[in-house]
């Protein structure tokens, strides 16, 4: 998708739905939300918090509610953006300008604004996942203080990569071979997959 720098440019790029996008835009701008561009889409914010976005695709266009999971949705018109992946976001999808009921759209947007003011939002889970150290690596760490020190200074993510690398091996010989291979990497503060990153 082409990078756009303004809402006007975004609407011009989507000529097949430009009139409908203008209508949705005017409904949203009748509220207190502020208009901006993020990820090359028009996004509407309240105190720099994303509330709704509009977007057009090949066969449909719509409004995305960033924390739509909290909307009452009495009319049962919202869809999960990506079932199984999206926890909070919901979309109101249209196929033509005739599908847009201004009053319904405005009611849903106003409810989303109120929810934002109340602080209703799902925050991404940034908690550290527990590192389960396999026996083979644990034994090596106990017997080598340099290795233990280097391992504990690695990020939680890199520690988990090493632990999973060993624990996923089925045979004991493979676990030992993997352990021998990763020990110098740990001592050098290198992550298991660092060489594939920044390529």
Automatic annotation (TrEMBL):
Superkingdom of source:
Bacteria
Q: Which Pfam families match?
A: DUF1801, OmdA
Q: Which residues form the YdhG-like domain?
A: 19-113
Which range is the signal sequence, renumbered to this chain? Answer: none
Checking InterPro entries in the record gives: YdeI_bac (IPR016786), YdhG-like (IPR014922)
Q: Which Gene3D superfamilies did the record assign?
A: 3.90.1150.200
Please state what the protein is called. Answer: YdhG-like domain-containing protein
